[in-house]
């Protein structure tokens, strides 16, 4: 049976908070642990009992990998905020995370290569933040944070995929994520 690495435990409340923006049948991360020693990383157990957009293909596909990556990345950022891990998220609050989760965390490049088909019913993934750089390159002077990440997915049957993604965190001042605590009654 697949498990998150020893020493990495899922914080159920935090995972629920992160996944609240997804439709219930699209919450693929079931267990996730974060490591802040060395490079920031997360390891997860994921399950996709039924694709959210296509008939059963019998294997994990690129669109689902992207959704899984998003869920893991959001959790990694939320964990970093909650535990004040790393200098980039040290001044964020959980309210900042809720406000910025959907509007301000942007994948600018995403590449994935499959070596063998992965069973979507139960598989694992690892996400590693390889580089983080703070930049003030927006025209209005607002800070940008650039994150270079690498990821890999696998299953017990030898299925395997890997890739990398570039993520930029911007300050859009956009609306809070739907369903965020404290957002009831907020005017759009």
Account of the 3D structure:
With 188 residues, the chain is α+β, with helices and mostly antiparallel strands. It has one domain (12-169): Thiol Ester Dehydrase, Chain A. The chain has 3 helices and 6 strands; from the N terminus they run αββααββββ. The chain has helices spanning 12-19, 62-82, 94-100, and strands spanning 29-35, 41-46, 105-116, 123-135, 144-154, 160-169. It has a 6-stranded antiparallel sheet. The longest helix has 21 residues, at 62-82. It is globular and about 45 Å long. The termini are far apart.
Q: What's the level 1 CATH class?
A: Alpha Beta
How many alpha or pi helices?
Answer: 3
Tally the beta strands.
6
Low-confidence stretches: 179-188
| CATH topology group | Thiol Ester Dehydrase, Chain A
Task: Describe the global form.
Answer: globular
Approximate strand percentage: 25-35%
Q: Residue-averaged pLDDT, rounded?
A: 85
What structural class should be given to the helix and strand makeup? alpha+beta
| Spatial order of strands in the largest sheet | 1-2-4-5-6-3
- Assembly form of the protein: single chain
- Total domain count: 1
CATH architecture: Roll
CATH homologous superfamily heading: Rv0098, thioesterase-like hot dog domain
Helix content: 10-25%
Order of helices and strands: HEEHHEEEE
Brief overview:
With 188 residues, the protein is of the alpha+beta class. It has one domain: Rv0098, thioesterase-like hot dog domain (Thiol Ester Dehydrase, Chain A, Roll), CATH 3.10.129.
């Amino acid at each position: 049976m697949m498990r998150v690495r020893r020493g990495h435990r899922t914080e159920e409340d935090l995972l629920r908070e992160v996944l609240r923006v997804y439709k219930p049948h699209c919450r693929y991360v079931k267990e996730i642990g974060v490591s802040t020693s060395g490079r920031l990383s997360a390891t997860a157990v994921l399950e996709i009992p039924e694709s959210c957009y296509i008939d059963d293909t019998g294997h994990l596909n690129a669109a689902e990998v992207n959704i899984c990556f998003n869920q893991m990345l959001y959790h990694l950022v939320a964990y970093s905020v909650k535990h004040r891990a790393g200098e980039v998220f040290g001044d964020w609050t959980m309210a900042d995370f809720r406000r910025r989760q959907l509007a301000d965390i942007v994948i600018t490049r995403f590449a994935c290569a499959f070596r063998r088909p992965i069973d979507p019913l139960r598989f694992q993934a690892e996400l590693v933040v390889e580089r983080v750089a703070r930049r003030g390159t927006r025209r209005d002077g607002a800070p940008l944070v650039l994150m270079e990440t690498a990821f890999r997915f696998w299953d017990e049957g030898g299925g395997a995929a890997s890739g990398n993604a570039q993520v930029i965190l911007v300050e859009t001042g956009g609306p809070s994520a739907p369903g965020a605590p404290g957002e009831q009654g907020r005017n759009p």
